[in-house]
Amino acid sequence: MIAGFVGVGAMGEAMAGHAAKAGFDVKVFDADQSVMDRLQANGLMVASSLSDLGQKADVIIIMVATDSQCETVVDTLLASGVKKGAVIVVSATTHPRTMVELSARCQKQGLGFVDAPVCYGMQGAKNGNLISLCGGSKSDIEKVSPVLMSYSRSVEHIGDVGCGQIAKTCNNMMHWAACVANYETLALARACGINAQSMRETLLKCPARNTTLERWDTTRFTWHEKDMDVALDLAQKADLPLPLFGAVDQLVKLLGPDMVKSLLHGGPAHYLGKEISEIHQ
Q: What is residue 19's three-state secondary structure?
C-alpha cells in the first residue's frame, strides 16, 4: 500500500516517518520546496506534484493548517485525478462542516473520505503515540486504519464524516477550559505564598490531576481561538447554551506560554491586568 502525506511540516513529517518505518511505501508532498528537498535528502520519496501523489497513493493523509488549505488540497487532487479506490484522510483539525462538504465532492468521483484529526500534538507525533479520531464509513476507516495505526496509539471510529472533528472539538474544549482553570488555581496558590510549580506537582498526585496540567510546560496556545470558534459555532447551530465555554473563549485568549512559565517559575505574573502578588499574613 502506498501512503501519501500532504503537508509535511513538523507533525506531518513525523507521521510520515512512522508510516515508512511500519513498512508502507510513503510518498510526500509539501508546498514548501525547501521542506521537500530536506525530506528527499532524508530518504523519503518525494512527489513531483499533488497530481503525482494523488495518482499513485492508496491512502492520502492531509495535514495542513486551515480549512481553506484542506479545500485547496482536496480540490486540486480531484481536478488532477486520484487513484481509483483511494481514500482521502484529513488529519488536520477543521470545522466538521468542511469535512462533510469535501466528502461529498470525493464521493462524486467514487473516492473514500475520512476525517481523522489527532490528539497529543507534536510530542505524540514524534513518539508515534497520537490518537486518531475518525469520522467516515466503516469500510473506509478499516482501509486506512493500518496507516493511521503506524503513528497512533489508537484509532477511534466516532461516527459518520465530520464526527472525528466534533470529537476533536470536544477534546479541545476540555483542554482550553483546563488551561484557564489550571492558571487560576496556580495563581491562587502563588498569591497565598505557595510555589506554583510545587503546587502543580502536588496536584498531579491528586484528583485534580489533568493531562493539560501534566503537559503544562509544552502548551503553546497556538490554536485556541480557532478551536473555540468551532465549538461555539456548533453550539449556536444546535441552539445549545454553553455559558461556561463562552467565558473560556474570552479568558483563554488572555493566556500564553510565557505567562505560564512566569507563573510556575517565579517570574513576574499577572492575570486580567492585575499583578499576582503574595498575601502578607
A: helix
Q: Classify residue 135 by burial, with Cβ atoms within 10 Å: 0-12, 13-18, 19+.
A: buried
236-to-93, 199, 232, 240 alpha-carbon distances in Å = 19, 37, 6, 6
Query: Sign of torsion, CA 35 39 41 47?
Result: negative
For the chain, percent of residues with pLDDT exceeding 90: 90
Q: What is the pLDDT of residues 90-113, one digit of tens each?
A: 999 999 999 999 999 999 999 999
Amino acid residing at 119: C
Q: How far apart are the C-alpha atoms of 159 and 166, rounded to whole Å?
A: 10
**CB neighbours of 15 closer than 8 A, spacing ≥ 6?**
5, 61, 63, 91, 125, 130, 150, 151
Coil, helix or strand for 161? Answer: coil
Distance between CA atoms of 89 and 61, rounded to whole angstroms? 5
> Using one digit for the tens of pLDDT, what is the confidence trace for 222-278?
889 999 999 999 999 999 999 999 999 999 999 999 999 999 998 999 999 999 988
Distances (CA, A) of 6 to 34, 72, 159, 172, 279: 15, 11, 24, 24, 53
* CA–CA dist 114, 60 (Å, integer): 10
Expressed in angstroms, the distance from the first to the final Cα of the chain is: 68
Domains of the chain, each with CATH number or no CATH:
2-161 (3.40.50.720), 166-275 (1.10.1040.10)
